Amino acid sequence: MPLLEPKPGALRPRPGAPAPDRVPDRTAAGTPRTLREELTALLGAEKVLWRVSDLVRYATDASPYRFVPQVVVVAEDVDDVSAVLSYARGRRREVVFRAAGTSLNGQAQGEDILVDVRRHWRGVEVLDAGRRARIRPGTTVFRANAALARHGRVLGPDPASAVACTLGGVVANNSSGMTAGTRRNAYRTLSSLTLVLPTGTVVDTADPLADEELARAEPELCRGLMEIKRDIEADPALVARIRAKYEIKNTTGYRLDAYLDGSTPVEILRGLAVGSEGTLVFIAEVVLDTLPLDRELSSALLFFPSLPAAAAAVPLFNAAGALAVELMDGNTLRAAAGVAGVPSDWAGLSRDTAALLVEFRAPDAAVRAEYERRAAAVLPSLELVAPVPSVTNAFTRDPAVIAGYWKARKAFVTAVGGARPPGTTLITEDFAVPPSRLAEACGALLALQAEHGFDAAVAGHAAHGNLHFLLAFDAARPEDVDRYAAFMEAFCRLTVERFDGSLKAEHSTGRNMAPFLELEWGPRATGLMWRTKRLIDPEGVLAPRILLDRDPRAHLRGLKTIPQVEAVADPCIECGFCEPACPSGDLTTTPRQRIVLRREMTRQPPGSPVLDGLLDAYGHDAVDTCAGDSLCGPACPVGIDTGALMRDFRHRLHGPREERAAALAAVRFRTVEAAVRLAVAAADRVGHRLPATVTRVARRVVRPDLVPQWPPGMPGAAPRRLPPTRRVGAAGVYYPACVNRIFGGPGDRSGPSLPEAVVALAERAGRPVWIPRDVRGTCCATIWHSKGYEAGNRLMADRIVEAAWGWTAGGRLPLVVDASSCALGLSREVVPHLSEDNRALHAELRIVDSVVWAAEELLPHLEVRRTVGSAVLHPTCSMRHLGDEEQLRAVAGACADEVVVPDDAGCCAFAGDRGMLHPELTASATRREAAEVAARPFDAYLSANRMCEVGMERATGHAYASVLLELERATRP
Length: 973
Prior knowledge:
Helix content: 40-55%
Number of strands: 25
Mean pLDDT: 94
Low-confidence stretches: none
């Protein structure tokens, strides 16, 4: 047994009443044996996820539903998909495809075989100078637009979840967003698709021979599609009805206009695939026509006394040419006040207040000026109010202000959902009415909500008559479910019978609208949709009950309870916005999944075998392989820092002996630092094999998650002495981080050490720095903080702040820190752990990252004498938290003619020593960024933190160095 074994039972939740929707005991063993063995034989063990923890973490999306799959398949390519479909047909099983899991109506959940098409399905190829883009289905909208922006182009669909949702889901749901309307959505901008039919047949709709090949492979399908087309066209009233339904936004049911717009079976299939929610085909690749990226913006956030008053102004801005007119009610605005960057005084708005976010986008300044003239003519006629000081009711061109407006609007679901009462389930509804009747619809919706006892939040794409609203209720209470059911019945009848609207405008039918499909479309059109499903998927393999369901209460099945867990995680609505930022997402779990697993533990009764299985996996899959970078916090619209939660869990796992050892290391850190530096120097002399053997033995004796592995290629020791400096005349106090006092720079780079380079740069710029003689034995406390050692963290935090106070003469001089993670640690992370007196001292300190110091204080006074042709830059997580990326780019830009930040740059997950404890974590986290770096040669590989540089070197095979070392070389006389 290891010397420092984790505390048993430390993560077991408090006992509570078992939840009605808890995972049953029979699932504790995971996937049924036969199913698991057959799929493993078919695909390979690495593609089959079968443990109960795997099934639970995939059993949720951003919707109010929860269905547990029997197995999860991680498909790598079209061959895998075809093999799974063939297997499912032969075994009469069901298949659901899942990419980002941001769907709001349960489309990404299945009860049998769930296929992950996110992990291995990313990639963007820009075509025709940006006029088209070939995109794989696991690619986020944000990532695709990043590639297109360099060509001045953008995708038409712009959902609020663009940072997380993927193109496969966007097309499969015909998502549109703030500006897409009915003309810029996926259906209208789709060029071609590569599809996999339930039979396994692959169709590239761009292939000139596609119809000929499809007729040979699927003759009955081709005949059936053309027969339905003829039947529709023979009914003029039906044709007129179909055309009328798509004059406003509509994603309810299948796109019947595909039969009118397509003239061949392949063209019809292409149209039917859009909005089919994975129930007809698998979308393996899309080619989308793009649109010009108009960069000249003018925007306003205009406040009104009521929702109907705001809605009444929408037609005026539509007529003026606004591209976006977004509506937000008082509940939405108040909830958004908790979002970073949104005015805090919005919290004081009344629930009756409403606002319109109006935006004009133009290709040049002259067109923008004309739009602004039209907008100015509209404003005097509006009933505007200014209920709080931050409200201006004026148009602005300021990009930062405009970004803040959009941040508030895009946080609608997540911010409002995060502010809901604890333990309640969130329902997101989405409907459309003719834009001319929007004000009337707002009033009717508010009255209906009040009648059923809901105080919902309302927002929407007002320009297109498209409203969203959120309801919260307790799915564990039958009376709450009945209240929701009554509301839904009344709402659907109101939308259809009074407004002839769309029950789903852009979120697609999903589980919660499937029972009401016939109410909207009528029996004739609905019958054609069932006929389409039977024709393309006769065995019913693909996603049954997601779009078509004859059960009138299907929308009430599978509603998930939301048990209360740790307070920091309770606001989570499982939206998935955090997942693209998570470095462990392709290896173990994401922040959302960590919370989902925790909630399932809480649903289980004491002694449950499911609970035991989840706890057995959670230590490694959730706690140990969390990089702790906390990038999930900024990504989460309600600011949930799952990294902080995992650090708390690490603390809970520590036994008393382990905490005492960590505290002792803090007390004697000067000795520890010297010993580690000596060991690094020795390892550099004898080679990596001996230290690798020693650490391997130590990991077995102590505990694998405490003792790092010693990998090949680690840097050698830093120079034993720091460079001499003088306190007199110093412009700043330079604090070389302990990592730079222990480890040297890249082995293949001659020249000064990082401390020597910083001192030299400061001297050249006439802004000399002073290194205190007693820096050794101090640390920013991140070592203890990241591992959850509370006593050691407090001790070192107090020590460094007291020392910094003295070094900087009570904060009169800035403290310049040469590692971005340490700059973050000293400026922010130490604060909660300081004594009250030291917190007051800390408030007086000016802590500056050395790269920021170089960009703002040194660079203006330096002469660049030589540059390299190109440099690739790895921004660190800490710099992103601190907002220092622009300064990093500025310093790199002084050293290189071309600076490239990979589109897939993210956390390297080295995280101090976490990349040595779990090297597979860094390998997984850096895979996509490393592939971009490998696509072309660079003259320099730069970053701003030694351990991140080591991680990127391991990932790419190229030696990364501090950007300050490159700046020193560029300015050296």
